């Protein structure tokens, strides 16, 4: 039986009842995190906790329980007997349940806090062969730095990419490449690593941050500048970065080969460095 967390309690997953008045349900008025459990430790829990605090702060929610989440996550891993496995923990905080009204509940209500874990392995085939992607206009809002549960544009674009036989969608805003539907995107040209700078147009990924630290400590030149769609034919390599997939090479964008259409050397090095870092912890 799967055990999940709901407002201070550990309950059988199917017994959790969320109010129809919950603002997460009514307005997508909430934020979330996804953290990787590597069969013995959480990857950069501090980074995830800090980002969640920021999302809560930026959305004007009030909740001082974020620091308890490491313990909640560990307890869920224990209850679900996932200690030795690779798993993902999903944590969501909404503004709580209140009669439907656009304005914040006044007085404020307790936020809703929900978390579950699921076994989640690595897509080693995608790591090895790379994936194909679609390029689509980024129709999302301009606060993509907040890890909001309001993901309809991401969901629609991702589904369209899947329907077209691809595995992810890469977004651009008027020709400026931002990120993907649930990952950050990196390019390689002449041995330098390019990625969109931190801004309101991308989520500041925890994997992205760790890749940049790894690249810096291995003397890889980093250019935090956006790549444009016009520049794509001149890029030698591309890869995606996120918590669930680590580093996934991109071999095609909109049917066109990236570089020579094979997984490149820099991508392989970053994958190796990342694996070594995970192995060390
Ligand atoms: N960008 C978006 C839009 C995402 O949804 C995600 C992860 O879900 C990422 C980037 C990568 O973030 P992280 O490395 O923290 O998983």
SSE-based structural type: alpha+beta
The total of helices stands at 7
CATH homologous superfamily classification of the largest domain: D-amino Acid Aminotransferase, subunit A, domain 2
Count of distinct structural domains? 2
The average pLDDT value, as a whole number, equals: 97
CATH architecture of the largest domain, by name, is Alpha-Beta Barrel
Termini Cα gap: 30 Å
CATH topology of the largest domain: D-amino Acid Aminotransferase, Chain A, domain 2
The number of E-state strands comes to: 14
**Could you spell the SSE succession in H and E letters?**
EEHEHHEEHEHEEEEHEEEEH
What overall form do the CA principal axes indicate?
Answer: globular
The CATH class of the largest domain, by name, is Alpha Beta
What portion of residues belong to β-strands?
25-35%
Q: Which ions and ligands are bound to the chains?
A: pyridoxal-5'-phosphate
Radius of gyration: 19 Å
Q: What are the low-pLDDT stretches, counting only 5+ consecutive residues below 50? A: none
Work out the helicity level: 25-40%
Largest β-sheet summary? 9 strands, mixed
